[in-house]
Amino acid sequence: MKADSKLAKKVENGDFIVTAEHQPMAEANGTATEAALKSLGKGLVAINVSDNHHGTAMSSLAASVAVIKSGAEPIYQVVTRDRNRVAIQSDLLGASYLGIKNILCLSGYHQVLTGCPESANVYDIDSTQFIEMVTRMSEKGELDNGAKIEGQFSMLAGAVANPFLKPLELNILKLDKKVEAGAKFIQTHAVFDVETFSQWLNVVVSEGIDKKAAILAGVLPLDSADEAQNLRDTYTDYSIPDAIVERLKKAGDKNSQKKEGLNICIEIISKLKKMKGLRGIHILSGGKEELVPQILAASGL
């Protein structure tokens, strides 16, 4: 069945799309999530809800429902690290019942990079197989074992891409497989190295992948040089040039570095918006949802 979300319509119509991220916290009453959603404000097509990014947070399913209650549209993120295909399918059926229409399919960071390094992982399926599962459920109305789904299941599947993964040929092959599996939108990891991202996007365009899925470039406002250094040292998907780290250091004290990080983010968006084949911007707030309205206003989004 064809997805009928607001995001799906934007993707189909070829519109420029702006999304942002909410990272739930370790809470039981939803107060922080509700406050964060108010901070994000208006002007977004949809709001991503991260799935236990740090291993200690309220479920993305519950937080996605909070997004709906706030009057916005969620992109329900699910990682395969913590669930096998049986549990994932069950969660998807429940999400559909709750009115969720968009999903971002991820493998997730290894548990050693979360707050629960001693926990066991699952990884029963990878992100591409996950996308195939969602596509089968939506288009054929059946589960992985062929069992029919009662009622109408319709969910727009999306995926993540790392433009900085080498070699480039394998990078593009991996992306193409996700799109062929049914991903209709692609949100990239945070872009700081604009030149390398441009090279990746040029190949995406030359291969015609941008015609099959909407490419949204991720951006992230940095708080400090220390944060930038920690991100690139800890996570392989962060490619942050030395020039940006030095620029943050030269900005001065903590508050000055935070302002400079915001300026860098806005400058990067300005460069990205001009690129052929790019269909949108995804603001990776990193838990700093209150900065999103400033980014939207200053960058003309």
Please give the alpha-carbon distance between the first and last residues.
31 Å
Please state the structural category.
Answer: alpha/beta
**How many DSSP helices?**
11
Contiguous runs where pLDDT drops below 50 for at least 5 residues:
none
- Strand arrangement within the widest β-sheet reads 1-2-3-4-5-6-7-8
Tell me the CATH topology: TIM Barrel
| Gyration radius, in Å | 18 Å
* Helix percentage: 40-55%
Q: Which whole number gives the mean pLDDT?
A: 93
Order of helices and strands: HEHEHEHEHEHEHEHHHEH
Supply the key terms.
globular; 301 residues; alpha/beta; eight-stranded parallel β-barrel; TIM Barrel
Provide structural commentary.
- The protein has helices at 6-13, 31-40, 60-69, 85-97, 127-139, 168-181, 194-206, 225-234, 242-250, 254-272, 292-298; strands at 17-22, 46-49, 74-79, 102-106, 156-161, 185-190, 214-219, 280-283.
- By secondary structure, it is an alpha/beta fold.
- It has one domain (6-298): TIM Barrel (Alpha-Beta Barrel).
- It has an 8-stranded parallel β-barrel, surrounded by 6 helices.
- Helix 2 links the parallel strand 1 (17-22) and strand 2.
- It has 11 helices and 8 strands.
- Helix 8 packs antiparallel against helix 9 and helix 9 (242-250) crosses helix 10.
